[in-house]
Predict the structure.
Amino acid sequence: MPLVGGLDVGSRSIELVLHDGDRVVDQRKTATTFDPLRQARALLAGVRLDRLVATGYGRGLVENAGLCAAVETITEIKAYGLGAAALCPEARTVLDVGGQDTKAIALAAGGKILKFEMNDRCAAGTGKFLEHLATVFQIPLAEFGAYALEGKEQLTINSMCTVFAETEAVSLMARGRDPHDIALGLHASIVKRTTAMLARVGLASPVLFAGGVANNPCVVRLLAAALGTPLCIPEQPEMVGAHGAAVHGCRTGV
């Protein structure tokens, strides 16, 4: 049976999904670093593919790089639409909060794109935003969401600029405010920004939450409360784009 690979070359990480047309055979992930092509080669080492479909900001880097199979490229929006339809067929909206961009996508049945909005000009409200601010609190990124959930009062953070948000956080700390409350306010500022994006594309339930930030329990809880609806979160939400690329490769044939 033909084996198709979906490769999502993102700003912070690279994901690979191997699909045989019936099911996912394997999933792999690595950091992008400053040499994404080398990292992509390492991820594909030992894999024999009939077809490779690349997406993500670095898809052009691998298109003619002589990898293990001929490479087709598709946009991130299309990949996320297909991935969402495969993982949560009833989803009608996709929110992807990745390392350095945010995507809000309105879907029809089968992953057809109706409308989308993408913030890829600054790190505001992305994983990079959280990563930077976690260092201010001297807390590992993986623990930052749980830390914020210990907050009792959701303080207001006015700026979504990473630098200015840090200044606000430090100022609040200097005034003796509870660090957990400050962290909760920072998470709430992300949710406020993302819900505004969702409203602009036309929010419809169910909502699939994708990207690495979907692993953050505080963002998940605040977002579900703000939207008033449960979220569909795949087991590995960062794999949605790669999954969609693989689905595209299986549908269009080898």
Remarks:
- The CA atoms of residues 43 and 176 lie 47 Å apart.
- Residues 179-201 form the longest helix (23 residues).
